[in-house]
Amino acid sequence: MFRDVPPYQFAVDIDHSEIDFAGHVNFASYLKWMEAAFSPIAEALQKHA
After folding, report:
1. What is the pLDDT at residue 10?
2. Under a CB-based contact definition with an 8 Å cutoff, are residues 10 and 37 in contact?
3. The pLDDT value given to residue 15
4. What contacts 20, CB < 8 A, 6 or more positions away?
5. pLDDT per residue over 4-26, tens digit each?
6. Residue 25 φ then ψ, to 5°
7. What does the pLDDT average to over 28-44?
8. Nearest-CA neighbor of 29 among 13, 37, 18, 16?
9. What gap in Å lies between CA 8 and CA 24, rounded to an integer?
10. Between vectors from CA 8 to CA 6 and to CA 12, what angle results, nearest 5°?
11. Strands (E), 1-49
12. 8 CB-near residues (< 8 Å, 6+ apart)
């Protein structure tokens, strides 16, 4: 069903303040990025439902 769909890519600008002392991203920032990446997908799916 989805074999001909190209991979979805979403660029994220990461601010230094979103990285902790161990070099890991802040989880709240990660969730914000995932929501922003998924929103266009969810809108497209709603149009085709």
Report:
1. 87
2. yes
3. 93
4. 26
5. 877 888 899 999 999 999 999 99
6. -75, 150
7. 90
8. 18
9. 24
10. 155
11. none
12. 37, 41
Q: Which of 12, 6, 4 lies closest to 37, judged by CA?
A: 12
Give me 28's structure tokens: 């709240």
CA–CA gap between residue 2 and residue 29 (Å, rounded): 29
| Model pLDDT, residue 7 | 81
Distance of CA 35 to the CA centre of its chain: 6
Q: Show the tokens assigned to 22.
A: 């161990």
pLDDT band of 47, cuts 50, 70, 90: confident
